[in-house]
Amino acid sequence: MTKLSDTYKELGIDFIFPIVIRNANGNRTYYEDINGYWWKYKYDSKGNKTYSENSRGYWWKHKYDSKGNKTYSENSNGYWCKYEYDAKGNETYYEDSDGCKKGTPRSQSCAGKVIEVDGKKYKLMEL
Q1: Start-to-end CA span in the chain (Å)
Q2: Domain boundaries, the chain
Q3: Which letter does DSSP use for residue 36 in this model?
Q4: Which label site among 12, 61, 68, 105 has the fewest CB atoms less than 10 Å from its CB?
């Protein structure tokens, strides 16, 4: 990617460092310092950062649920992590590529399952 400062120089536009560009919501979409180091950022419609990349080739991606809770992150080093939440937004499960696991994933929850006892059916719910 061409640095913004290089483009400004080619166009004869005066500027000072750091160069900071923000979107209409005030979120930083580009940053460049005097040493030529830069970051660029992307956001979803709710203002959650979905992607970042820097001049050293490092990137990070994020995904969110409809409530704005981060559900997945991944970076250019191959590291990833995922999160699950209850209805109140409390983190109930975490797992990462290093093998760390905390909580119970929804796929292992019994909530919503139907059991039968003495001919009667019961629907389980998670508390």
Answers
A1: 50
A2: 1-57, 59-127
A3: S
A4: 12
